Amino acid sequence: MTKTRRRSTKTVFGFEAGMPVPRAYTMFGTDELQAALGSEQDQVKLVQTYLFDPESWQELFNESQKNPVIKRALRVIVQMGTVAATLTYQYTVAFTQEEVLLDRKRLQKSVSRTLYYASDDCFVSEFRNNGSAGWTEGKAAIRVVSADAIDVAEKLMELNPNHRAPAVLVFGSKGSPGGGYKRGAGSQEEELVRRSSLLHNLEDPYGYDPARDWSYPLPEFGGVYSPDVAVFRDSERNGYAFRDEPLYLSFINVSPYSNVQANEVQHYGRWQSRIPDETVRSYKRKMEAILNIARDQGHQSVVLGAFGCAGQATLAVHMAQMWKEVIETSPYAFREFFDDIAFAIPDDASGDDSPIEENSTAATFATAFGVEMENLDFF
């Protein structure tokens, strides 16, 4: 007998399933945007009355770098527009005013096929039974790219048009689907939720998957696999502009450890920030789970990141070394399965004023793997 649950009556920002398509023909300007920041009601009205203007949004966002309250409110407006697009199955591109349709059946199928990996036990059992038989020795290319994860995934799709779309790692919130997206939080997970239909896969607030029998929190050594998610907005750096057409990617939500404590120790004759051994073992097990989920779903390429650094540049060296050990020496032989393993690390991750090429987190990862740091122009 199939286990079912009651269809959810929950809404996001008060938006109902089947809500009418907003009939807006004029883009908001900075004045209208500024006036809507005071309350959620005003923000909803803005989304339903005006077309989204990425240039006005970006202008006000850039002016508000020292005002976190305004920055969060601006992100909430983006999130409202994203939710509205997924409930009306369409959005309008700025300037061209072209209406782009989202495939209703494809979106709902994506949600219903979302998988919850409760632990890594299945991978351990499979390896004991089958090992890595039949895999080709050392074929994966390791790339470190100073760019956004979505942009890197799209570039990999251009390079390998006959492959399945890459799986993209999401640094997931352990306890909250989508993290602090309702509050306009600014981490990687919230930005991806603002840019795509991923919220429905993680939270399913509108009950697209009536047979779902799992819920948060995320397991320590497992995660959530969301296939064929529609990505239809550009990055925060580009004002969250609506894309001319959606890009479909799969995502793996796994939660990094928070508030990782590192100790200054001598490592091969140099002082380095090192994570305690017990935490290292657990972190590497998480990394194995991420790659095993991608492998289990048949992805030939994955887009990873500085998982767990959380803006702490001092941890980047050790984190990069852990990824290298997992990829190159794990008994799961990951480098023998994937064609491309890419680390997408935006160039502002180091958090200091040193030259990006020498001291960024991306450069640290490139050094650890012995590869040149790339960008999208020279991929």
UniProtKB/TrEMBL annotation:
Note the coiled coil stretches, chain numbering. none
**Which InterPro entries does the UniProt record give?**
CHP02452, Macro_dom-like, PARG_cat_microbial
Microbial-type PARG catalytic domain mapped to chain residues: 96-234
Q: What is this protein called?
A: Microbial-type PARG catalytic domain-containing protein
